[in-house]
Write a structure and sequence with these properties.
Layout lengths: L21 E10 L2 E14 L3 E6 L4 E5 L4 E2 L5 H7 L9
Antiparallel strand pairs: 1-2, 1-5, 2-3, 3-4
């Protein structure tokens, strides 16, 4: 009997990132009985297979999953959630 080989987790995004890219991601925090959403921006300093070390404007660094990152100027996660990932959904 052969055991299946495990493949590394595939990155959900098809966008390729490089060190030095300006990126955005959505930050979610709890506030009372609700949630606050904000868009964070930064510059990639290091990359691993699944995460990026991003330097934010206040000189802090944060490890962010690649699947949550968007290149600056692209739709954010919240925009994708509300409008859908493709413009073709509204063309019918």
């Amino acid at each position: 009997m052969t055991t299946p080989t495990t493949q590394p987790e595939a990155v959900a995004s098809t966008v390729l990132f490089a060190v030095g890219d300006r990126v955005t991601w959505t930050h979610t925090s709890a506030c009372g009985s609700g949630f606050n959403f904000s868009t964070r921006t930064g510059k990639i300093e290091q990359l691993t297979h699944t995460h990026a070390s991003v330097k934010m404007g206040n000189n802090r660094r944060k490890m962010v999953p690649l699947r949550r990152l968007r290149k600056e100027g692209q739709r954010t996660e919240l925009t994708e959630m509300f409008l859908g990932e493709s413009d073709s959904a509204n063309s019918d």
